[in-house]
Amino acid sequence: MLPEALFFSAVLFVIGVFGVLIRRNAIIVFMCVELMLNAVNLTFIAFAQVYGVAGQVFVFFVMTVAAAEAAVGLAIIIALFRHRQTVNLQNINLLKG
Amino acid sequence: MQTLGMPHGTLSLFYIFHFYLFGLIGVISALLFVTRKSPVAAALWLVSTMFCLAAMYILLDAQFIGAVQVLVYAGAIMVVFLFVIMLLNLGQGEGIDVRGVGWKIVAGAIGLGILAQVFALTRAKTPVNLTLPQGYAAEQVAQHGAVAPIAAPLFNEYLLAFEVTSILLLAAIVGAVLLGKQKEARDVA
Known about the structure:
Structural class of chain B: mainly alpha
Mean pLDDT of chain A: 89
CATH architecture of chain A: Orthogonal Bundle
CATH architecture of the largest domain in chain B: Up-down Bundle
CATH topology of the largest domain in chain B: Four Helix Bundle (Hemerythrin (Met), subunit A)
Radius of gyration of chain B: 22 Å
CATH class of chain A: Mainly Alpha
Largest sheet of chain B: none
Number of strands of chain B: 0
Low-confidence stretches of chain B: 1-8
Largest sheet of chain A: none
Number of helices of chain B: 8
Distance between the termini of chain B: 58 Å
Order of helices and strands of chain B: HHHHHHHH
Structural class of chain A: mainly alpha
Oligomer: heterodimer
Shape of chain A: elongated
Distance between the termini of chain A: 50 Å
Shape of chain B: globular
CATH topology of chain A: Helix Hairpins
Largest interface: A-B, 68 and 88 residues
Radius of gyration of chain A: 16 Å
Order of helices and strands of chain A: HHH
Mean pLDDT of chain B: 84
């Protein structure tokens, strides 16, 4: 099932890229990044079936990093919202506070 | 698994049907997720995509990772997202948040470019001496259970990475608490 899994993974990844580029809501952009991570995980799992279990171990690490990233990223979004009262990326365009 | 030892061309119809079914549901959910205006609806469609991915992991002989996918992604991470949406009261979606036609064209072009690259990669020939025999992963799961084949390399070859991950999680917790604190409280501290 390797080609099929790679196909679905590529489509999901591109949907994630598309979402990051066309949405302005910071939370939805962030969820699109999660979707891209998930698409890569599917590739790892598909290759793990053919090349050995190391791919599954990598997915385990990717999930841990994704959890850490979600915690920190959402804290940043909350801090931004406190500052500007919006999560629309169009209104968040200054690097200084 | 009933496909044990079978050559690739003779996977059971049941298996192939469900793989495509979950793949299609996942892709459709992902498309709905990207196009929803309300962040809550988007988050719930993303949960649907993650459940479909968990099903695909299980079909690809990664039962443990499938369970972890449901627990960590669909369970924990998406609940945190929904919690933040609720906390910031963003459920209705604020104004127009989709970018203009120019951005959509650029996004479509970049998407097609990446898709073409990935499809070119899938046509690459895989070295035969690296590949495992057909059905090896399923055999491992049948003999040692779903967890042991992952636990063994995790606690031997990848032990250092595993320990570093724990430090990463600790740093993430401290960072999240620090960022989430009220600004006045941080100035006092």
